[in-house]
Design a protein that fits this description.
Oligomer: single chain
Distance between the termini: 37 Å
Structural class: mainly beta
Amino acid sequence: VQLQAFGGGLVQAGGSLRLSCVASGDSLSTYAMGWFRQAPGKEREFVATISRSGAYTKYVDSVKGRFTISRDNARNTVNLQMNSLKPEDTAVYYCARGILYYSPADFGSWGQGTEVTVSS
């Protein structure tokens, strides 16, 4: 499977962006999906995951209440709505797939990321 993330850009603090991840070569419906990010000079970190059906989600504490992960299995896409963005959200964002939504450490098949820059 190939995962392609897009939707990043430059936004002011307090603004919003919507990221999307499109898959080709395989159906995403049999996988949990997630968003991860890597800021300059830092390790990649988990942001949000969603179960195969979309019924369950998990977020890192720093984005709870601001970010929302969703999926559309019919369109083979996963989205991340990011509101109230902060400069510390600046990073390259990646989507990935896994087996269990509550086990983001096991995710892989990293796609090409999309860069998000939040100015203060």
